[in-house]
Design brief:
The chain has about 190 residues and is mainly alpha-helical. It has helices at about 20-75, 80-95, 95-125, 130-150, 155-175, 180-190; strands at about 10, 20. It starts with 8 loop residues before the first strand and ends with a helix.
Amino acid sequence: IALPSSAPVLSGVSNRKLPVTLSSAALLSFRHSESSALKDAEQQSRLTLVTKNSFRLALALLAGWADVACFRRFECFGNMMTGNLIKMATAVAGENWQDAGFFGLLIVYYVCGVCAFRSLDLSLPQYSEKFVALPILLLCAATDILYLSFPSARWHMFLVAVAFGAVNGVSAGKVSAVTCMMTGHMQKLGND
């Protein structure tokens, strides 16, 4: 199709000049909206990264706080099953069957918490971390209330183990970082 020599032209769009017609104006509009959409997506990606990193940081802080509090109160870990496994093995070696059973059950309850979150995540993938937050809070609050009522007992640690199994299910499944794996994180920092 031959265009009249008097048709206005627009430069700077590509290496050649385009005649300004309805179709080229639509193309320019599309390119502008595509560029805006890319910028919006890039800003959303940065916001998501900041939000994920903030969430990871909050989970790591919570994990550390919980393990220190649990170890000081109950001489076990609510979040670090490797420590509980070592304590269980030490109890077995010392033929302290009550402690061995206690630490073994902590690990079982932790796995139950992971399984509970995973089943929730499979049934409600977009909302699972929101729905699990309240039960985690209630389990931790119940542990504190039971501690105040029975300070010398430690069986209420099973509630914390379930809660932190769910917390690590969230952190592994939703933000791709298990916050209690300090050895792995330190190794990664050393390798980077």
